[in-house]
Write a structure and sequence with these properties.
The structure holds 2 protein chains of 2 kinds. Chain A is mostly helical. Chain A has 27 helices and no strands. In chain A, helix 13 runs parallel beside helix 15. In chain B, strand 20 and strand 21 form a beta hairpin. Among the domains of chain B are: 129 residues, Immunoglobulin-like, CATH 2.60.40; 104 residues, TATA-Binding Protein (2-Layer Sandwich); 286 residues, no CATH class. Classes of the chains: A mainly alpha, B alpha+beta.
Chain lengths: 547, 961
């Protein structure tokens, strides 16, 4: 980025102008350049020992109490000296200038906002994480809580073990550096898989995706230490109401540290209580402190931490205070988590009374119906949503899936082509179009579509999906050896694809390789212990092929 | 179709293409210069370039650009309004240019063009207001409902407002304590109030009265109302829809929000895309019914969404990247056009076309596959692959590999004491012993280009190397490397070998993997120091040097400890490591004066391995250096004697009991570890459930009990964890001991007078170092191998190759039967000894008595002393059999007799139906049996054994495949 050539009189103005540039970049959603400018400013500020969050009570009538500067210095670490003094080349005036504390603070906050927005992913648009993640979260929490210096770590040092674990995978960024916020995977759910309970093609949970991509972006950033969530003391920040909301979102969305975000929520909601206890009448309790927003976030955190029962009162309270759409959706998710889909429907119905044409609520309603396996109602609602908002990809895709499973691949194909013409250009979509073509009899289009899908596939899971679906083409055309090859290619991309293993077993059994079939089935059982197909096949094998 | 195009009607690129345009960089306004005037498009970049356009027709023409000028300061915003009081023409507007530290107001004047150049504009400076703080944006309006002219206020970066009213009058308005990211401030004319977005994400409404009065009264700024928006905002705007009501339209980061001017929410629309900028306007007039509130929102993916209130009515797609600013404007010959400005300065006037948007998929440019060519390529590839994976001629391959990477590895025979223990991070308990270390040198020279090279130095456990691995990527041909290495003790364990192996594995640029291996021996002086030879010892072994090229002197073997011309016949060596205080582990080597025999004796099994290794290896090395006999690598034929015997031969005796004892101890520790781990698992579960309880407990309940439980549980957990660490340490030590014991047996068997196949098979089963896995301890992993030898191997007594009834009892049982393993293990050694004894009778019959005598008595004493000595070290427990066995030698004078008594499993005998054959032997097993063994010799060796095929084996072992 070129520095502005300016004939500014005061160096402070130059700094402020840099800050303006950063804000302008932020407004344009150019988050990465914005972070770059912020970094330069923070570095400059640090080199001049600008203290952040210094109490400026004497300067103006701050309603905040001074926040024990020494203690804060511990939490906000100083940045280590930098080797290259890049700012020198850009202009000595930056170095010699004195940056006011408010500016430093604002830059800090701006960078935090930019980092958050960069990886923001609506948690309401993400499918429910499966139960396994719960255990993970809990384990992490306990592990980090161990007392320092205890020998527990060395005692549990793993010895060489033959079992292998699957490495976590990451998700690609879209071109503008922002993560996709559309409902991936579920909206374009793939028809044609032999097993009902195959995991969606989306990999990892949103929080993990965020955490990895966020961490990768911070590499080599000297100011990264200013944003160390683990060192943050919630009670100190709870009273700084100008930044605390941004800080919460940073913790929740960027750091994906739900536990920390939750404790911040609690600290903030505790503030008025403490004030009341102290009996300080000088500062009237700000009603905004216990407003609906914090209640909503409290509920959000508790829901993410898998405490739906405790989240419910908070969300109800928030909803009573203010009918924000997010609160409705969160509550609906909560009821679904508690397996009270009827209540969720009632709630969404109430929201729709006020806004009958709101697509968000209609879609939620449809999803609930779908989860209750009331496909007809769900489809009806998806149709309505598509009518209200004809460019809604999720509604269109769901209708298409409905048609596909209704043995109407031609209609499904129409919808998929409409999605394609909306500019959605993804592996899953091409895969679906190809399958529709296959079952609709438009054989000439099948392979080109798969070709495109293969060309676009970047993630191993996606490749595995495409090859898996290609094996169906081979099976349909009777070319079993091709089908086998496809499935084997699927397994090279994703060795833990249970459906492929199962189908490979069936193909092997067809060709008379009973031993091979059994070993494939056993492998499939390892991956998908509950899949009925695998169990049934194994049972059948046991009965009919005595060894 | 549901998605349409935004058609481009008029487009141009603004002067500054470096791309510093913002939402405030675009202004569509009229200046009142002529009567039939349409909108001017004014663009100002952050680098200070100001341009004014006036589109005439549906394509850009040079005459459309009316003004282009470069200002000294960046342009942060552009505004038009009646900013000056003394203007005659009521329709005349001024242009305000917001700069970082000033706001400049210009009058716009027309210069009529000559010829076809068209008209031009000129800016005339009207006023300039300077300020100290850098501006962010500006807000204008008829503050205080003044007629005829507009006031304005500048919003600064730090949130301060500076108001400019009548000429020259200005005042500042600073909101207390609330710094935030700057956000625009808007003015609502209907209620004469300002809307400000606060740092706490509230929308606050201040009346103009309050703000202007507060300057005088210094009272705090109290908002009239405040509403929580709950997210950051991108932009906001005030639109008057009705006489009685204006709406504040807010584009949040996630939602599109509308409030009326009393602070009541009109709607919140959750956006399912990332918004970038927006424009709200009213179609119709607010004082007439039927006015429609329309909003256009631009998404990050360059889609234009048009809403009426909160309902989407149109969606269209831009072909270019998403703009940063959007305005609705009324330009000449296109009313209601959409004016957009991109971040790179692309100014476009467009309209909503009814032509559907078609997503153009790039054609797949895949070449048509030519089958002949593809076939050729495939053939080529397959040939390459075949060539690289062809392993028929391993020697040639290895030779080739050695040519590609030349490497040599050597260890200096001298030890040194100048090890930097701190630098090499040697544990304190080892460093304090000041053990000698050795130096080595590794030379690598790459002759060919390599994609990857990895080097691993494998040292025996306890010994560490200063650099045990090296990875190189993209190694150019011709590069070379020399790595000096230090070898030193890092743990106080018994070391079982002095051999250090270096593996070099590399991938050529074509991905062909090759492995090279070299080894060298550490000097013995690293592990022993010489001491007084001992006269008697528990375990005595005898080796006879049969090679003529090896002088049977101690000097030949232990040059480190003897003078070059020393004629000493006895050498005592003491183990330096682990160097226990109470116990000095001494081994004595005695060379016979008149014969070629060497006797090695010690009380401790652990001392032997390295000495035997040295003796055997040196002999073989010296002999092959003389070049008379070559070890063939070919597969040994049936009935061929162990070729090693032609150079060195060991007396057939194996100290079985001490070896088994090591295995016992090791097994017991394994059991302990398992128990301990289970206990920890239980505690860990408890820990987790307690933590969960704590999490789930509501705040009102008392926590004391739970906290106490957690504390206790935690302390217990830590205690047990520490215990486990301790046991693991023991285990490591015992593994070292077991290594030594197994290595001892291996070295003896290696030089026994047996059939070569037997030696090979047994040696491959007795592999060192022993490994313990999480799921499988060494004993468990050894059991199948031992069983194999027991049932199928060359040591099988039965000639029949039928495997009927040999089904191993183990496989059906879930638990591992250690007793059985131990029995088989003992039997194995015993059979070997018998076999070797009987076979060595014939060639060396005259030596035999002497050789036999030694081990026989050695065995007795060994068992007695060693077992009893070890008994104390044992943790007690299940050793009645061992004790009984230790006592037995007293009853009988012969080793064979002792072992025969419990040689075979009853179970096995029944299964094999062997008892019938062996009956007399069992009956007469009290007779020490040289004749008997001779007679039964054919029984001992399963002459024409066949290893079972895999299928037979697996089906018999019950392994399902």
């Amino acid at each position: 980025m070129l520095p502005l050539v300016l004939q500014m009189t005061s160096p402070l103005a130059t700094l402020e102008l840099q800050y303006f540039k950063a804000v302008s970049l932020y407004r344009r959603r150019s988050y990465e350049p914005c972070v770059g400018v912020c970094n330069a400013l923070l570095q400059a500020g640090h080199e001049n020992h600008v203290q952040m969050f210094a109490s400026s009570a004497k300067e103006e009538q701050e309603e905040l109490q001074p926040q024990q500067p020494e203690q804060q210095a511990e939490h906000l670490q100083r940045i280590g000296p930098r080797q290259r003094r890049r700012r020198d080349q850009e202009g000595g005036n930056l170095n010699s200038s004195i940056m006011p504390t408010w500016l430093m603070e604002s830059v800090w906050q701006l960078k935090m906002r930019a980092l958050t927005q960069r990886v923001y992913l609506d948690d309401l648009e993400v499918d429910e994480a499966d139960a396994g993640v719960n255990e993970d979260v809990e384990f992490e929490r306990i592990a980090t809580a161990a007392r320092p210096g205890s020998s527990i770590k060395t005692a549990f040092q793993p010895r060489p073990s033959t079992s292998q674990r699957r490495a976590p995978s990451s998700v690609a960024h879209s071109s503008d550096g922002r993560l996709n916020s559309a409902r991936p995977g579920s909206a374009l759910s793939r028809p044609g898989s032999a097993l009902g309970n195959r995991p969606a093609s989306r990999c990892g949970t949103a929080s993990r995706v965020r955490a990895t991509s966020a961490a990768a972006f911070n590499v080599g950033d000297a100011t990264a230490k200013l944003y160390q969530a683990s060192r943050l003391n919630p009670t100190i920040y709870a009273e700084r109401e100008t930044i605390v909301k941004a800080l919460f979102q940073f913790l929740y969305y960027h750091e994906a540290d739900v536990q920390k975000a939750y404790s911040l929520c609690q600290a903030v909601t505790d503030v008025p209580r403490q004030r009341a206890a102290q009996g300080s009448l000088a500062t009237p309790t700000n009603p905004a402190r216990s407003d609906w927003w914090w209640q909503q976030q409290l509920g959000r955190c508790l829901l993410a931490l898998h405490y739906p029962r405790r989240a419910e009162p908070a969300l109800q309270q928030s909803l009573a205070a203010f009918p924000h759409p997010d609160t409705y959706l969160l509550l609906s998710r909560l009821y679904q988590r508690l397996r009270q889909a009827e209540r969720a429907l009632l709630l969404i119905g109430k929201a729709l009374e006020q806004q009958p044409f709101d697509v968000t609520f209609r879609l939620e309603q449809a999803r609930i119906h779908e989860a209750m396996s009331q496909q007809e109602d769900a489809l009806q609602l998806y149709r309505l949503a598509a009518k209200l908002q004809p460019i809604n990809v999720e509604a269109l895709a769901s209708i298409a899936v409905g048609y596909f499973y209704d043995n109407n691949p031609e209609m499904a194909l129409m919808y998929y082509r409409r999605i394609l013409s909306l500019g959605v250009h993804s592996v899953e979509l091409y895969c679906n179009i190809a399958l529709c073509c296959l079952y609709g009899g438009q054989i000439d289009l099948v392979l080109p579509c798969f070709q495109r899908a293969l060309l676009m596939a970047t993630q191993p899971e996606q490749k595995a999906d495409v090859w898996y679906n290609l094996s169906f083409v081979a099976v349909t055309s009777g070319d079993f050896s091709l089908a086998k090859r496809c499935l084997q290619l699927c397994l090279t991309s994703d060795a833990r694809d249970g459906a492929a293993l199962n189908n490979l077993a069936v193909l092997a059994a067809h060709s008379g390789d009973i031993m091979g079939a059994k070993s494939y089935l056993n492998a499939a059982k390892d991956v998908l212990p509950e899949a009925s197909e695998v169990v049934a096949n194994l049972h059948y094998m046991d009965l009919h092929y005595k060894l | 179709m549901s998605l349409f195009n935004v058609c481009s009607w008029w487009t141009t690129q603004c002067g500054d293409i470096t791309g510093d345009y913002d939402v405030a960089s675009l202004l569509c306004a009229r200046f009142g210069l002529e009567t039939q005037e349409k909108d001017y498009l004014i663009v100002g970049s952050q680098s200070g370039q100001l341009s004014i356009y006036y589109p005439h027709a549906n394509a850009f023409d040079a005459t459309d650009l009316l003004l282009e000028t470069q200002l000294a300061a960046p342009i942060l915003g552009l505004y038009a309004g009646k900013f000056s009081g003394n203007v005659r023409n009521e329709n005349l507007n001024q242009l305000a240019v917001l700069q970082p530290n000033a706001i400049v107001i210009y009058n716009v004047q027309t210069i009529s063009g000559l010829a076809e150049y068209g008209a031009q504009l000129k800016l005339q400076l009207q006023a300039e207001h300077k300020f100290q703080r850098v501006a962010f944006s500006m807000c204008q309006g008829h503050f205080g409902q003044v007629k005829g002219r507009e006031f304005f206020c500048v919003v600064h970066l730090d949130g301060t407002l500076t108001f400019y009213e009548q000429d020259g009058i200005s005042y500042e308005c600073r909101f207390p304590g609330q710094r935030s990211l700057p956000a625009p401030v808007v003015y609502c004319e209907r209620t004469d109030s300002f809307f400000r977005f606060s740092a706490t994400w509230h929308l606050q409404c201040f009346s103009y009265q309050d703000l202007s009065h507060s300057l005088v009264t210094k009272s705090s700024y109290q908002p009239i109302w405040s509403q929580c928006i709950g997210e950051g905002i991108l932009d906001m705007r005030v639109v008057q829809l009705k006489e009685t009501c204006s709406y504040i339209m807010i584009l949040g980061e996630r939602n599109f929000i509308s409030l009326d001017d009393n602070g009541k929410f009109n709607f919140i629309l959750k956006l399912d895309y990332a918004p970038k900028c927006f424009h709200s306007f009213v179609v119709g007039y607010y004082w007439e019914p039927g006015a429609r509130l329309i909003t256009a929102i631009v998404s990050d993916t360059a889609k234009l969404h048009i809403y009426e209130e909160a309902n989407i009515i149109w969606a269209a797609q831009w072909q270019q990247p998403a703009p940063v600013a959007i305005q609705r404007s009324n330009v000449q010959s296109l009313a209601g056009s959409i004016v957009t400005l991109s971040a790179t300065g692309q100014l476009t006037v467009g309209y909503l076309g009814a032509q559907p948007y078609q997503f153009q998929v790039q054609p797949l440019n895949q070449e048509e596959l030519s089958f002949a060519q593809a076939h050729k390529q495939l053939q080529q590839l397959e040939d390459e692959i075949k060539e690289s994976v062809d392993i028929r001629d391993m020697d040639a391959l290895n030779q080739q590999a050695a040519d590609q990477v030349r490497f040599s590895f050597s260890i200096q025979p001298e030890v040194c004491d100048d090890l930097d223990t701190l630098l090499l991070d040697v544990p304190a308990d080892v460093a304090v012993k000041e053990l000698p270390s050795a130096k080595g040198l590794l030379k690598l020279k790459m002759k060919a280009e390599l994609a990857e090279l990895q080097l691993v130095v494998q040292t025996p456990s306890g010994v560490r190397c200063s650099q045990d691995s090296l990875s190189l990527v993209d190694v150019p041909a011709g590069s070379s490397r020399e790595i000096p290495l230090d070898f030193y003790m890092a743990e106080l364990l018994h070391v079982h070998t002095t051999r250090v192996e270096v593996f070099v594995s590399f991938l050529s640029t074509r991905g062909i993997p090759r492995v090279l291996q070299q080894s060298a021996y550490l000097p013995l002086s690293m592990f022993y120091r010489s001491c007084q030879p001992q006269k008697a010892a528990g375990i005595k072994l005898t080796y006879t040097i049969t090679s003529k090229h090896v002088p049977p002197k101690l000097n030949t073997f232990f040059r480190e400890f003897l003078e070059p011309d020393s004629e000493a016949h006895a050498l005592g060596l003491q183990l330096l490591c682990p160097g226990l205080e109470k116990l000095s582990e001494v081994i004595t080597v005695v060379a016979a004066k008149n014969s070629t025999r060497l006797r090695i004796q010690s009380d401790h099994v652990e001392t032997f391995a390295m000495i035997l290794e040295r003796i055997v290896e040196t002999t073989l090395q010296l002999d092959s250096a003389a070049g008379l006999l070559k070890m063939h690598k070919k597969k040994p034929k049936r009935g061929v004697r162990n070729r090693c015997v032609e150079r060195i031969i060991a007396a057939p005796f194996i100290p079985i009991q001490p070896i088994l004892h090591r295995a016992d101890v090791h097994h017991e520790t394994q059991q302990n570890i398992r128990k301990q781990t289970e206990q920890l698992e239980v505690l860990w579960q408890q820990f987790k459930s307690l933590q969960r309880e704590l999490q789930e407990q509501s705040e009102s309940e008392p926590k004391e009990t739970l906290t106490m439980q957690i504390e206790a549980n935690y302390d217990h957990l830590i205690l047990e964890g520490d215990k486990l660490v301790e046991i693991r340490r023991d285990e490591q030590r015992q593994r070292g001991d077991l290594n030594c014991a197994v290595a001892l047996a291996k070295w003896i068997i290696y030089a026994l007078n047996l059939e070569e196949r037997v030696v090979n098979v047994v040696s491959s089963v007795l592999s060192v170092p022993v490994e313990d896995w999480t799921e499988l301890s060494w004993e468990e992993s050894m059991a199948p191998g031992i069983d194999m030898l027991h049932h199928f191997g060359p040591l099988m007594r039965s000639k029949s190759t039928s495997t009927h009834g040999l089904l191993d009892g183990n496989s059906t049982k879930d638990t591992f039967d250690y007793g059985r393993f131990r029995r088989h293990f003992a039997t194995l050694f015993d059979r070997i000894v018998r076999l070797a004894t009987s076979s060595s009778d014939e060639p060396t019959s005259q030596q035999q008595p002497a050789a036999m005598e030694q081990p026989a008595e050695a065995a007795q004493t060994a068992q007695q002393t060693d077992e009893i000595g070890n008994m104390e070290r044992m943790l007690g427990g299940d050793k009645p059999t061992a004790a009984a066995r230790a006592a037995k030698p007293n009853l009988s004078s012969s080793l064979e007799a002792v072992e025969d008594a419990e040689e075979y499993d009853e179970e096995d005998l029944r299964d094999t139906g062997y008892r019938k054959d062996y009956g007399p032997a069992v009956a007469s097993d009290q007779q020490p049996g040289e004749q008997q063994t001779k007679a039964k010799r054919s029984e001992w060796v399963n002459e024409d054994f066949e290893l079972p095929t895999t299928e037979e084996l697996f089906s018999d072992l019950g392994i399902w495949w």
